[in-house]
Design brief:
The structure is a homodimer.
Chain A: E1 3-7, H1 11-22, E2 26-31, H2 35-45, E3 48-50, E4 62-65, H3 69-77, E5 85-88, E6 105-110, E7 127-131, H4 134-147, E8 151-153, H5 156-185, H6 195-204, H7 210-213, H8 217-220, H9 223-232, H10 236-254
Parallel strand pairs in A: 1-2, 1-4, 2-3, 4-5, 5-6, 7-8
Antiparallel strand pairs in A: 6-7
Chain lengths: ~260, ~260
C-alpha cells in the first residue's frame, strides 16, 4: 500500500499529499480539472499530473478523492474501475457514494481546516476512517496512524454530525472573528488587539466545557449592556445574530449547572 | 502610586490584583459585597478585606472598581471621596460614571476573558486607558506598562466598540464551541476531537484576515451541504443560527476580494 494517486489538488490534497510523501508514500499522479493546479502540486511533489480523468493510472494502491462534494460523484464515474482502494476525504458524503462502481472503497476524513500555503502538523489531527471491508479498514487505519496519533473508526452517519459540529466550531467561529474585525475597522482599530482574547478563548475549552467557560453580558443576562451593544450595531443582520446568540447562550446557561466565568 | 484597593473580588479583580502584587504594588484592601469572596481574595493576597463600602480606607493611591456594570454606580456613590485615583475596568461604561463624585478618575480596561482559577499572563493583554487629566493618564499608562507590553489610550466611545467586538470574538465564539459540543454529545462523541480544529482556526487569523481565512460550505455557497446540514439540526433556534451565519458569510465573501481556503 505505497502508491497513491490524488484526485484533487486543493488545500487538503496539497497538505495530505506532502505529508504522505514525507512518510514514505509514493505519490504517483495528481489529477485536477484545472491543469494549472495539477501542475503546481505535481511539480511540488515531483510526480505526474493530468486534467484528464481517463488518463488516471490504474496501478496505484490508494486513490484519494479530495474534490468538491458536488464534483465527487462525477469524478468517480469517469475513472475506470481498478483493483486499488478508493477513498474520499469529505465530511458530509456517505461511503456508499462509491457503490456500485468500485469493489474496494472507504473514507479518510481528517478533521481540520486546510490552507494551501500554511503547513499543518498532522500528528494531532483526528482522522475518521470507514471502509467496506475489515481488511481495508485496517489498511486505512495503518496509513492514518503513520501520520496521526488520533485515528478512529466511525459511521457515515456520525461523520455528518462531526462535520456539522466543525462548521460551528471553525467556519462560524471564523466568521465571528470577521465580524469583530469589521466592527474594529469601522473605529479605526486594528484586529490584532483581539488576538490574545481569541487565543485564551480557544485555550480555555482545552480544560473545561465551553458551557462552563462562557463569559459576557448574555450569560450574566445583563440586559443593560446587551441593549447598549445592540444599539451600536447598525446592520440589521448583525443585530439578529447578536440577539439569537445571546438568547441561546442564556438558554444553555439556564439548562446547565455550571458556574460561569466573567469577561 | 503603590497602594491599591480593589472594589470587587471577581475573576478580573483576582487575576489583576495578584499580578499587580507580584509587580511590587501593595494591595491594601479588598471589598466585595460577599464577605466570603472578599475573604478568599484577601487571604490570597494577605491583605485586609471588607463587605462594607463605608469601611474602605481613604489612604490608597489607586482604587480599582471591578464589579458588575449594574453595581458600579452604586459602589461609587457609597464610598467617601478621597484623593486617590479611581478607575473602573468595564468595557461598556463611560469614564463619566465617576462624575461629579470624585476629582481624579479613569479607566483601566484589559481586553481578556478571566477565570478565577486559570492564571493569565498579562504581558500580551491589551490595556485600554483613559483618565480625566494628563497626569493621571500618564500614571495609569505607567502602571499598565509594568504588567503589559500593549497599552493604548482610547476614548470611551472606542472602548464600547472594542467590548462589542470582544463579545463576538470571545463570548459568541465560545457559545459556538458549546453548540458543537452539544451536537457531538448527542452522537456519543467527545468534544476534544474538535480541539486541534479550534486551535488552528484561532492560529490562522494571526497571519491573515478572517475574511481570507474563511472556509466551509457557506463561503463556497455549497447549497447541497448546507441543506443537508440544516436537516440534521432539530432545534429551530440552531437552524436560525446556521442560516443567519451562513448568509452573512456569503455576504462578507461577495463583498471582499480575498480568495478563500477550504475546510
Amino acid at each position: 500500500m505505497k502508491k497513491v494517486i490524488f484526485i484533487g489538488a486543493g488545500n487538503l490534497a496539497t497538505q495530505l499529499s506532502k505529508t504522505l510523501q514525507e512518510h514514505g508514500y509514493e505519490i504517483v499522479q495528481i489529477y485536477s480539472r484545472s491543469i494549472t493546479n495539477a501542475k503546481i502540486l505535481g511539480e511540488l511533489l515531483s510526480c505526474e499530473y493530468t486534467d484528464n480523468l481517463s488518463q488516471i493510472k490504474d496501478a496505484a494502491d490508494l486513490y484519494i478523492f479530495s474534490v468538491k462534494d458536488t464534483a465527487l460523484q462525477d469524478c468517480i464515474r469517469h475513472i475506470k474501475p481498478n483493483n486499488g482502494l478508493w477513498v474520499h476525504t469529505a465530511g458530509s458524503i456517505p461511503i456508499t457514494v462509491f457503490e456500485p462502481h468500485i469493489k474496494r472503497y472507504g473514507v479518510l476524513y481528517p478533521l481540520q481546516t486546510f490552507s494551501k500555503n500554511k503547513r499543518v502538523d498532522f500528528t494531532n489531527i483526528p482522522f475518521f476512517i470507514e471502509a467496506n471491508s475489515g481488511r481495508d479498514l485496517q489498511l486505512l487505519t495503518d496509513i492514518a496512524s503513520n501520520i496521526s496519533q488520533n485515528v478512529r473508526t466511525i459511521s457515515s452517519e456520525q461523520r455528518k454530525y462531526i462535520h456539522l459540529a466543525a462548521v460551528f466550531a471553525c467556519n462560524f467561529t471564523n466568521h465571528l472573528y470577521a465580524i469583530s474585525e469589521k466592527l474594529l475597522q469601522e473605529q479605526g482599530l486594528p484586529f490584532d488587539i483581539l488576538l490574545p482574547l481569541i487565543q485564551e478563548t480557544a485555550d480555555k475549552v482545552k480544560g473545561m466545557s465551553p458551557v462552563a467557560a462562557q463569559t459576557g453580558p448574555a450569560v450574566r443576562y445583563d440586559e443593560n449592556v446587551m441593549h447598549k451593544q445592540l444599539s451600536l450595531l447598525k446592520d440589521e443582520r448583525l443585530k439578529d445574530i447578536y440577539q439569537l446568540l445571546s438568547q441561546n447562550i442564556h438558554i444553555f446557561a439556564t439548562n446547565s449547572s455550571y458556574e460561569q466565568d466573567k469577561l
